[in-house]
Design goal:
Order of helices and strands: EEEEEEEEEEE
Largest sheet: 7 strands, mixed
Strand content: over 45%
Number of helices: 0
Structural class: mainly beta
Shape: globular
């Protein structure tokens, strides 16, 4: 079973940037597509971005497209989410998730992912 730990969240002003990290352990994450989800209070969980195992496919929600960039460093077993031009509506708990049997194609955020981290809080406020 893959274990995931998110870090990098915090409080940032509107227009600011944060980089989230999702560190994997327990198994080599190279072959796992990994997604970033977020959930704001009182709202449903949203799939923000996904990256395939071999970097060939990335996917972004319309709400973050052009502002967020997902990447991975397989040597470090880590996936990153660079978040720029942050808005108050980006405030949420951000989770990373992995599943060997998933892909990052259209609709990637639907259905279950086998491994989840505990989340990191991102707050965008002045």
């Amino acid at each position: 079973q893959l274990q995931l730990v998110e870090s990098g969240g915090g409080l940032v002003q509107p227009g600011g940037s944060l980089r989230l990290s999702c560190a994997a352990s327990g198994r080599t994450a190279d072959y796992y597509p990994i997604g970033w989800f977020r959930q704001a209070p009182g709202k449903e969980r949203e799939g923000a971005s996904c990256i395939s195992s071999r970097h060939s496919t990335t996917n972004y929600a319309d709400s973050v497209k052009g502002r967020f960039t997902i990447s991975r460093d397989n040597a470090k077993n880590t996936v990153y989410l660079q978040m720029n031009s942050l808005k108050p509506e980006d405030t949420a708990v951000y989770y990373c998730a992995a599943d060997l049997n998933r892909s990052c194609g259209p609709g990637w955020y639907k259905g279950a992912f086998a491994s989840w981290g505990r989340g990191t809080q991102v707050t965008v406020s002045s």
